[in-house]
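Researcher: Quick test of sequence recovery. Tokens follow.
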């Protein structure tokens, strides 16, 4: 219990310090991981489990609120795929130039290795972005829905990558997962008899972890994807929004473990920090490409910039991609620490920028050329009130 107490005190203290400095608490949680690591407090095996539970519930909650049709929109699938290609090509080019220049850890790396690193850096963090959107209450805003759609597309690409590099295909039993659709129809009827209390919250946790995570993992697929899919299958239930709200604080508490665990990956030295800073310097270009692609697809500057700011970070999936590279012998184990530092720093930068996002966006958008309203996305065009003389809002 002493180790648990030390973890709690440091995490709570640094989270509170971040709040006092008007920073998101997650910045303090990230710092707590590095401080705990530096103090050699000792391992807390349960922390990884708590982090996994938090991420699983997060993806289940996304599924409960996700309109699958948004994945078919050009501003989602085209932006996600085009941005990933651009990130790998241009990001890989920058890393290759750094390798040629003799930057530590990059010098002497093969083109294949650099391409793998660029691919890892192309992902944005589902956990971080959804947390920012929920804190603002803007998950259902157009830019929030587009950002979440892009993240889901990235998650799908990540699952395909992990399956392709694992050396084995999913079990033939994976075909039986199509039976989840009729099963969830039965589960929805059970759900309707549970009321609105703790049984509904427990139902959500069971759905995320059993037919979601455990069942998909058992047939060789990523459990997180299973939680997302089960959430989507249950989303049509009238109480889906209520369930998502009831899981909110449970999920938020568990995700503290996720942010702390990032800092526990390893302690950086000076060359490691230098390369991580180089990666962070690529973030503005990552955000700018999102803005450019989304405005080319007829979204307003404001919508595109808010989405770009939200997605301007690195992802926990990047750590998984790097771990695959380490297992394959393409990368040294030190790259896991390197990527952890880059992800943590990107969260700090993104949290600072998104904390002032709306004010900054209004100033930037006002300086950009006017857009032709007739060519804008249908949801972006000014509302036509017709001959109405009075509008009642808020009834």
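Model:
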């Amino acid at each position: 219990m002493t180790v648990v107490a030390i973890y709690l005190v440091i995490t709570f203290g640094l989270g509170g310090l971040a709040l006092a400095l008007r920073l998101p608490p997650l910045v303090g949680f990230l710092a707590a991981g590095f401080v705990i690591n530096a103090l050699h407090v000792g391992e807390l095996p349960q922390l990884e489990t708590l982090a996994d539970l938090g991420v699983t519930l997060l993806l289940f909650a996304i599924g409960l609120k996700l309109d699958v049709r948004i994945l078919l929109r050009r501003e989602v699938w085209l932006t996600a795929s085009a941005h990933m290609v651009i990130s790998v090509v241009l990001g890989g080019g920058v890393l290759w130039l750094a390798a040629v220049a003799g930057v530590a850890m990059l010098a002497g790396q093969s083109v294949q290795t650099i391409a793998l690193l660029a691919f890892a850096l192309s992902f944005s963090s589902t956990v971080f972005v959804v947390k920012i959107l929920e804190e603002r209450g803007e998950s259902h805003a157009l830019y929030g829905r587009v950002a979440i759609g892009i993240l889901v597309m990235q998650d799908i690409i990540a699952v395909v990558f992990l399956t392709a590099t694992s050396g084995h295909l999913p079990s033939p039993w994976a075909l039986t997962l199509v039976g989840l659709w009729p099963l969830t129809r039965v589960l929805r009827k059970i759900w309707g008899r549970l009321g609105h209390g703790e049984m509904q919250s427990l139902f959500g946790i069971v759905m995320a972890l059993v037919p979601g995570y455990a069942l998909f993992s058992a047939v060789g697929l990523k459990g997180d994807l299973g939680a997302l899919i089960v959430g989507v299958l249950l989303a049509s239930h009238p109480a889906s929004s209520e369930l998502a709200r009831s899981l909110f604080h449970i999920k938020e508490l568990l995700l503290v473990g996720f942010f702390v665990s990032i800092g526990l990956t390893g302690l950086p030295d000076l060359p490691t920090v230098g390369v991580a800073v180089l990666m962070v310097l690529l973030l503005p270009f990552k955000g700018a490409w999102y803005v450019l692609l989304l405005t080319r697809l007829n979204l307003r500057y404001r919508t595109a910039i808010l989405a770009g700011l939200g997605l301007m970070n690195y992802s926990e999936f990047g750590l998984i991609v790097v771990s695959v590279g380490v297992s394959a012998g393409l990368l040294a184990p030190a790259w896991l620490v390197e990527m952890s530092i880059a992800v943590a720093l990107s969260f700090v930068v993104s949290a600072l920028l998104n904390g002032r996002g709306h004010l900054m966006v209004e100033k930037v958008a006002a300086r950009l050329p006017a857009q032709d309203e007739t060519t804008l996305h249908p949801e972006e065009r000014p509302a036509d009130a017709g001959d109405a003389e009075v509008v009642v809002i808020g009834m």
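DSSP finds 17 helices and no strands in the chain.
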